[in-house]
Amino acid sequence: MWKINFSTAAARDLHDFSRKDSERIIKKLKEAAKDPYHYFDNLVNCDEYKLRIGDYRAIALLDYDEKLIFILKIGHRKNIYKKLFR
Predict the structure, then answer these.
(1) Of all residues in the chain, what percent carry a pLDDT higher than 90?
(2) Which domains occur in the chain, in start order?
(3) What global pTM score does this model have?
């Protein structure tokens, strides 16, 4: 099982969601921590990976040596990529 760490921005994003959405995101992240290769997709021309959670996306870095998932941002799919690459 991989460890999950949140950036300050990701923790703030998670706090801003409704309780129902936050619980769903946490549940999916825990499920993905069992086998990240199956759940995360590599972003084109980037080191980051995305995790689909309904209409939301979690953008993360995967450290294979440390078995660590570092969540950078969490947001709605329509604007998460704009926020990430500014």
Answers:
(1) 85
(2) 3-84 (3.30.2310.20)
(3) 0.91
